[in-house]
Design a protein that fits this description.
The chain is mainly beta. The protein has five helices and 25 strands.
Length: about 290
């Protein structure tokens, strides 16, 4: 097996014609480039599998997340997100320069308006989702002015090192959020993004996709599926993950009702087995 076959193209930037210079000697490519740092300027940027608006949505990047840019071509950029190393294509107009200051805060509510002025009656440019990093230029006590422009209500932000250790409660706050394949925000998200965002709020950074999470050696103890589930356990079926609320129920983002729901473990297990196969692993994260 070649080195390129061993590397995951979702997490390593390489193609037959172009590759990340850090992969030289590991993969064969016509040329290698050093990634150029950039910042996501849009409130939410779609990361697609190909440079095409009709290509599958693989993930989304939040405002102020940092990326490495390997190619800019015909309005598209081939990038790697520095939060979870995910690789894909996004519209080039979603990119901005590296910011002068480090992120000191992050959004602590599901979604908050991005005001044009420090006034709740001012026009709203967009909405920022939970876990969006915030680079603060100034504060008037009630509102925070962002380096990326716009004002955020200060009580909707917390310091970047704050921790909400009950990731199950964070996941439950998304109840009713639409299911969106590749989504990674309170406007819509998939099963693995729900887990990723909930654990990020608890200070635990994990991979983007469920199969990557399942194999992550840092994601707590591996338990046999037959063991009794505890609140907060992560349950992995082929292509799906849910968070246990106890031995008999779960919270998950699922395509069946097309939203984040609480449901019985038995109901989900039957559906998941029909779609992909039996429960194969339980993870018990430690915060």
């Amino acid at each position: 097996m070649s080195a390129s076959e061993e590397l995951n193209p979702r997490l390593s930037a390489f193609r037959p014609d172009l590759a990340d210079a850090r992969l030289k000697g590991q993969v064969q490519a016509e040329s290698y480039v050093d990634g150029q740092q950039a910042t996501i300027r849009a409130a939410l940027a779609d990361l697609r599998r190909r440079p095409d608006d009709t290509a599958p949505l693989d993930s989304q990047l939040m405002q102020s997340e940092q990326v490495l840019v390997f190619e800019r071509k015909e309005g598209w950029a081939w990038v790697q997100c520095q939060t979870d190393n995910y690789v894909g294509y996004l519209r080039e107009n979603n990119l901005g320069p590296v910011l002068d200051t480090a992120a000191t805060h992050r959004v602590s509510v599901l979604r908050t308006p991005l005001f044009t002025a420090p006034d709740i009656k001012s026009p709203v440019n967009d909405y920022l989702s939970l876990q969006t990093p915030l680079h603060i230029r100034e504060s008037d006590g009630r509102f925070l002015l962002l380096e990326t422009e716009g004002w955020v209500y200060a009580r909707h932000a917390e310091t970047i090192d704050s921790c909400s250790p009950d990731w199950t409660a964070t996941a439950l706050s998304f109840l009713g959020t639409p299911y969106l394949w590749g989504g990674r925000s309170s406007l819509g998200l998939d099963c693995s993004a729900l887990v990723q965002l909930a654990l990020a709020a608890a200070g635990v950074n994990i991979p983007r996709d469920s199969d990557q999470q399942e194999e992550d050696p840092h994601l707590g103890d591996r338990l046999a599926p037959s063991e009794s589930f505890q609140r907060g356990d992560l349950l992995y079926w082929p292509g799906h993950v849910a968070i246990a609320l106890g031995p008999d129920s779960v919270v998950n983002a699922t395509a069946s009702p097309l939203q984040v729901v609480m449901e019985s473990f038995h109901e989900l297990d039957q559906r998941a087995q029909s779609d992909g196969g039996p429960l194969r692993l339980v993870r018990r994260p430690v915060v």
